[in-house]
Amino acid sequence: MPTKIRLQRRGKRGQPFYHIVIADGRAPRDGKFIEKIGTYNPLTRPADIDIDFNKAIAWLDKGAQPTDTVKAILSYQGILYKSHLLKGVEKGAMTEEQAEIKFQAWLQEKQAKIAGKKKEYELSVKDVRKKLHENEIKLNESKALAVAKKRAEVAAAQQAAAAPVAAPVAVAAPVAVAEEVPAQDTPAAPVQAEEPKQE
Q1: What does the pLDDT look like over 119-132, one tens digit per residue?
Q2: Closest CA to 40 of 63, 69, 61, 64
Q3: Which of 32, 99, 110, 169 would suit a FRET pair with 79, their CA atoms being 20 to 30 Å apart?
Q4: DSSP H or E segment with residue 179
């Protein structure tokens, strides 16, 4: 089986980190390898790729076959394009200077795209944070209103509970007056004048 350029998983559970290695195709994924040529961290935005450009091209020239994921990484870094241009130079289709000019133009365009995507990502993160902040402010305001309303209800309940204690004294006096009023209004029994006694 041919030599492969593949990923070897490292890192904790849920936090993957990969080494880009040259290994025998029969070797297990995280087993024995021939040479480490770079690292790949998919958790960062954009993904952090550190790879030895010249070693990767040399192994591709020797016939090492990249796996699908590594092929995408090599393409992203421009290693496959550079290898393609160097094959064109070997066949005499272009000079080395022309190949280098083409590669530098491609590299500048690629870096501009990456910078644009990075800026878009940062702006989207800022927008998300701004919306979260606004939602948090609204939530805090609604909580403050709810707390103020509850406190007002508790204060009103306390006032209502305190009011009946003083009320019986105020109510008792009118009741007593109300009982006396009918007694005064009733007509008094007619007093009969004494008749003079005759002697």
Answers
A1: 888 888 888 888 88
A2: 69
A3: 32
A4: helix 96-185
